[in-house]
Amino acid sequence: MKRRKFLNTAALSAATLATFPLHGKDLDPTEKTTPLKNNLNHAVCHWCYSDIPLEDFLIAVKKIGIKGVDLMGPKEWPLLKKHGIHSSMCNGAEISLTKGWNDPQYHEVLIRNYREMIPKVSAAGYTNLICFSGNREGKSDAEGLANCIAGLKQVIPLAEAHGVVLQMELFNQQNHPDYMCDSTAWGVALCKGLGSDHFKLLYDIYHMQVQEGDIIKTIRDHHQYLGHYHTAGVPGRNEIDERQELYYPAIMKAILATGYKGYVAQEFIPKDTDKLASLKKAIEICDVSLDA
Hints:
Layout: E1 41-45, H1 54-64, E2 68-72, H2 77-82, E3 86-90, H3 107-123, E4 128-131, H4 141-152, H5 156-162, E5 165-169, H6 184-194, E6 199-204, H7 205-211, H8 215-222, E7 226-231, H9 248-257, E8 263-266, H10 275-286
Parallel strand pairs: 1-2, 1-8, 2-3, 4-5, 5-6, 6-7, 7-8
């Protein structure tokens, strides 16, 4: 399933859940689990589990020890609050992944959307709000960079006033052809051009391994510009275990060593039948400490 289209199926009834390929033990709130170290704040993206109704999903992930769910908007926030789960990356102000800040024709709508959403995010007690560069559509990287700076500068002061951090996600060209923010260097240049701690990069480890590699060095060199992290296995965007090429414990330790205090969100698409078991294992893989 494509990202962000999951909301169309998220309203499935709890009765339908019985048909999903899950194991009953995964939703059993009485089952004991090993306490997490929680040196990193663990989160997950619901769209990867779109066949599980959101409330059932929140109950399950809270049992695993997950504290946040990414890519949630105002309609979902009341349910998250009900279950004590943080909206670790808010959405709802963007137009789309392909129509973003690099194109002035979208600035009027984007400025209006973000000026409306930033105070809502703050009032709800959240911090992070996602944004996108948009596709190149023939624009040079320098032109797109200048356009992003010009547009975002019109909403950054409001984000600063409300304690909200706008986060632009990095994507690779295989999955998102023509997307402009496809390199750490370009994203860092945008951060420097805006000159605000209230604009950061959402560093998607899967996308950047596919696009440019050198994950740990990039994190060490540019961590001050990286405000949030997503995970997935390479290749395939599936489980982050030994069936793929990235060694996530070392990556998580590199993130932890920078002093990072934010969230790391699992954004892999499970291949295994027991999806929640895959998620639980991923959290255990990423639940690291520097002294072990």
